[in-house]
Design brief:
2 domains; alpha/beta
Length: about 240
């Protein structure tokens, strides 16, 4: 895996698995915006001038403060110019979130001064809860910390489990114990209903890890990806 060093913000690569070659790391969950930092941007030393660098720097600063030496961020830790690397990353994404020591969920449209337990405030209406990829980023990690736009903590997946379950329709045991076997395929599919992805293929790709399947990544196939996902689940 390719990480950002939380102190130097330089890339470092490790081989192996979590605890065996892969060091403890923090991982970022967020919704993409304009001018995100790519792998090439960071290698070319252009990232500091981009809007998305605020998230990169903020995540690394928090991880370093909390004692994590490495950070993984999907915008810049994958070289998306390599189709092989992109395919491996998408097929491994659920595992990478599952194996993270902590997941920082950055909700850029939420104010830290609000009470997240009240349905009327911005936490319940955050865009983060509407995106396809953030479902696995919510479920896979053991610890998820919700952060507001100012990087202050709102709560955790555990402390806000009831609220998050109501917002997402996700079962409580799936959130608190990561026991997906308690639920049918139809129930898990319902958790993804209404969530959106930028590309139609990602509606399927973002669910592969939750259902424990792997398949080739073929951007351009459109909705055929979801048909292939269903076949893999049936197998």
């Amino acid at each position: 895996m390719r990480f950002l060093n939380s102190k130097t913000l330089e890339f470092e690569e490790f081989l192996g698995e979590a605890g065996r070659g892969i060091p403890p790391y923090a991982i970022l969950s967020h919704t993409w915006g304009l001018d995100e930092v790519s792998y090439k941007d960071h290698v070319d030393k252009k990232s500091a001038s981009q809007k998305g660098f605020v998230k990169v720097a903020g995540c690394c600063r928090l991880a370093d403060f909390e004692g994590f030496g490495y950070v993984w961020i999907d915008t810049c830790c994958i070289d998306k110019s390599s189709s092989a690397e992109l395919s491996e990353a998408i097929n491994s994404m659920f595992q990478w979130y599952r194996d993270a020591a902590i997941c920082y969920a950055c909700l850029s449209d939420v104010d830290s001064s609000e009470d997240a337990t009240l349905e009327t405030f911005s936490f319940a209406g955050s865009r983060w809860f509407t995106r396809g990829w953030t479902l696995q980023e919510l479920l896979a990690p053991a610890e998820v910390v919700f952060l507001a736009s100012d990087w202050k903590e709102i709560g955790t997946k555990m402390s806000l489990a009831k609220e998050v379950s109501c917002i997402t329709g996700t079962g409580l045991s799936a959130l608190t114990e990561r026991r997906w076997s308690d639920y049918s395929v139809a129930q898990m599919m319902s958790w993804a209903a209404g969530r959106q992805t930028t590309r139609p293929e990602d509606e399927a790709y973002c669910l592969m890890g939750l259902f424990g399947v792997n398949m080739p990544i073929l951007y351009g196939e459109g909705l055929k990806a979801f048909y292939r996902l269903q076949l893999e689940i049936l197998k």
